[in-house]
Amino acid sequence: QVQLVESGGGLVQPGGSLRLSCVASGTGFTIDRMAWYRQAPGKQRELVADSSSNGGTNYADSVKDRFTISRDNAKNTVYLQMNTLKPNDTAVYYCYAEARTFTTGWVDYWGKGTLVTVSS
């Protein structure tokens, strides 16, 4: 079993920045893909950015050139640096990891989410 815990959300003014962190913990696991998703009120969950174990990254068009995903594999941590935030970035941000353990195949894991509110 793998647990994901996000941190770093909060209230920020338009044009501001936030950095989200997500730490994966457990016993004897290997992580491949890590990602950030978000869900705004009344909308479906959407991919914000993802990072593969070989270093490849992918971004939603709406956040390109504003958000940066990075990961520290030694710390089993993924980050999301969010700059030039806009009101429509307001959402609950969820951490995702595709991981396997000694007893399971590849499994999707989700954090509980952290709220980001962009408002003046």
Question: Could you describe the 3D structure shown?
Answer:
This protein has no helices and 11 strands. Helices cover 0% and strands 57% of the residues. It is mostly beta strands. It is elongated, with a radius of gyration of 14 Å. The strands form 2 sheets. Strands 2, 4, 5, 6, 9, 10 and 11 form a 7-stranded mixed beta sheet that branches.
Short key terms for the protein model shown above:
57% strand, 7-stranded mixed beta sheet, single chain, 4-stranded antiparallel beta sheet
Question: How much is the average pLDDT?
Answer: 95
Runs in which pLDDT lies below 50 for 5 or more consecutive residues are none
The class by helix and strand makeup works out as mainly beta
Strand content: over 45%
The helix content is under 10%
Could you spell the SSE succession in H and E letters? EEEEEEEEEEE
Alpha-carbon Rg, integer: 14 Å
Oligomer: single chain
Q: What's the main sheet like? A: 7 strands, mixed
Number of E-state strands:
11
Helices, by number, come to 0
- The coarse silhouette is elongated
> How far apart, in Å, are the first and last alpha carbons?
40 Å
In short:
This protein is an all-beta fold and 120 residues long. It contains no helices and 11 strands. The strands form 2 sheets. Strands 2, 4, 5, 6, 9, 10 and 11 form a 7-stranded mixed beta sheet that branches. It has a 4-stranded antiparallel beta sheet with strand order 1-3-8-7, with no helix packed on it.
